Amino acid sequence: MNPEAQLASYAVKSDASPGRHHPEPPAASRPEFQRDRDRIVHSSAFRRLEYKTQVFVNHEGDLFRTRLTHSIEVAQIARSIARNLNLNEDLVEAISLAHDLGHTPFGHAGQEALNERMREYGGFEHNLQSLRVVDALEERYGGFDGLNLMFETREGVLKHCSAANARKLGAVGQRFLLNRRPSLEAQLANLADEIAYNNHDIDDGLRSGLLQLGQLDEIDFFARHRVEVEKAFPGIAGRRLINEVVRRMINALIVDLIDASSARIASIGPRTVDDVRNAPALITFSQGMESEALELKRFLRSNLYQHFQVNRMTSKARRIVSELFDAYLAEPDLLPPDYQLSTGTVEQQARKIADYIAGMTDRYAIREYRRLFTVEEA
Ligand code: MG
Fold it and tell me: Separation of 25 CA from ligand 1 center, angstroms?
């Protein structure tokens, strides 16, 4: 039986997909989007996510989320919503697991620094880099570069894109030029990402001691769930209290997203994937929840992402990435041979360097910085 036959008419199905760039015979034992998911899990960029972080640097503690655990949480959230909406679970899982593959070490600080250094050479954008990883950089197959994923998986990975970049990307960039939406599965993976990081950053923020429980009561959404938990479990405190509140918040966001999206799908009435592409965004929170989520995000921005201790790390991270880039560009023979271009333009060499740096884990970048810039460890 074809498991995709049971999905909603507007869910993505592999037999109606533009498919893969390099034609391949169908897999005997699994649907095509499951095959994509499996290819992503076996990629080396996926393994490196274990040692890359978003807010905290990998060596700061063993219990903080890494990009690997983040991606797994996104996939979990996205799949449970997809099942409720009768969408393609394999596809949302593939997109979720691949969505951060192109991230530099040290999260946004690393990306900003690399983008700044790449300004004259076409810039650097982690979304675009995730697509580049699956399309070109992975070296696993004899017949082609990259993972040769299905069109809809690639489309979901490319969340944002400037018009200038979209023009260079062919079919997968078209929607940005035509102002069309991606599949519901892609829309869903994007919001599952937000649900995951808003909640785990609260959790990690408390765990690290950079946030205090009392501060969080200024977020209505948090305070309400805390009251509920304390009523259900009088005297509850510490980790158990935090975990009970966070799981309720995640659940409330998921339930709201399912309800609001179902209502929107019912009112707009798409019948096919093409209808979805021409409709406004259909996977959305209710307006009320939208503003709760915004409040949560604002709180995290001013209290955690801009905390002075986080700033100290991001400043260091920017310096590491910028100085590595400058050193490699000035002296390409410092690079491993695979990344040195004997012929080609400076733009091409710069792009190779960006690929090399973006592929580094936090600790690799720190070690490489020491190796290049300190005498003792040279
Ligand atoms: Mg993410």
Answer: 32
User: How many angstroms is it from 72 CA to the middle of ligand 1?
Assistant: 10
Residues 292-331 pLDDT 10s? 999 999 999 999 988 888 888 889 999 999 999 999 999 9
Cα separation, 184 vs 172, in Å, equals 15
Helices 238-268, 67-85: crossing angle, 10 deg rounding: 40
Distance 7 CA to ligand 1 centre (A): 26
DSSP secondary structure string for all residues of 28-61? SSS-HHHHHHHHHHTSHHHHHGGG--SSS-GGG-
Cβ(34)–Cβ(208) below 8 Å: no
Query: How far is the centre of ligand 1, averaged over its atoms, from the C-alpha of 284 (Å)?
Result: 17
> Distance from the CA of 175 to the center of ligand 1, in angstroms?
21
Kindly report the pTM of this predicted structure: 0.95
Q: Which domains does the chain have, with CATH numbers?
A: 3-13+28-309 (1.10.3210.10)
Distance 143 CA to ligand 1 centre (A): 30
Distance 9 CA to ligand 1 centre (A): 28
State pLDDT tens for residues 130-176: 999 999 999 999 999 999 999 999 999 999 888 999 999 999 999 99
